[in-house]
Write a structure and sequence with these properties.
single chain, 217 residues, alpha/beta, Rossmann fold, 6 helices, 21% strand, globular
Amino acid sequence: MTPFNEDSVRGYLHAPKHPGNLGLVLTHGAGGNAKMHLLVLLAEAFCDAGYHVLRCDMAFRQRRPSGPPSPASAANDRASLCEAVTAMHRILQGGRVILGGQSYGGRQSTILASEQPGLVEALLLLSYPLHAPGKPDKPRTAHFPALRTPSLFVHGSNDPFGMIDEMTEALKLIPARHELIEVAGAGHDLGGSKFALAGTVVEKLGALAAAKSEHHA
């Protein structure tokens, strides 16, 4: 793992010993950064599976080390993710790129993919913030019907940003192939440094990306 600083992309790059043709861009939630334990654990698991992995800070986190993003920063945050995807394409010199994020980062990733179909092969959404805690009447799903990218959602059964039954119902709005992995007993951080499903996530996400490639072959 090495620090990555290229143009406006900031983060950490994991290079596999035996690289394949897949890259993963991972980003953080509203209160975190690219050093989150969950992202590090997943980056190491994907790297072991032959992926190049770039853990990156979104634009709002590059501007200040702490504090949540403002609604006005969302477009810039999506632009920073798009630039990270472009950087990964340069690293791979071809190949396929997957985009993933935790909470706010996942939400911005899904919006970006709905705005730019075909930008990435698949999406990894960790603790998607379906709604603010206590506000299930205001779901963050307006863009779901426009999402054409295969998506893997990983969600804790005790996540106050959306219960499993709420997630299951909301995901019916997505026309693309998608799957939901429930992490029993976990909250919004999915268990943080104790997250134990990395291998399953690698396997299922790889299958989603491969299925899309076969469909377009």
